[in-house]
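hey so i finaly got around to running the thing on EF-hand domain-containing protein from Nitrosococcus wardiae. pasting the sequence first so u can double check i didnt mess up the copy paste, my clipboard has been acting weird all day
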Amino acid sequence: MKKTLLLVVATILIFGTGVVTMGQLEIAPEAPDFSEVDMDQDGSLSRDEAALVEGLDFDIADKDRNGILSKEEYNAAMVGGAIILEPMEEREPTE
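ok and heres what it spat out for the 3d tokens, dont ask me to read them lol
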């Protein structure tokens, strides 16, 4: 048990600064707070505002498909201050 814990801690220390993969989900570190991205302070994020958040997939985060992200949608796309990205194998190529 102690060896397993030590191995986990060592792995986190070695790889803790990059993108972490947990199962099928990829997590990018240090996502900005909603209020930092809501440039016009209207309580929602436009596609342009959301584009400021590296790695955030607007289409996945916009659960109600209304063309804006609410604070709830933005926060739901995050875990512990990190952005949940779609699984790598399901991503479409970007242009």
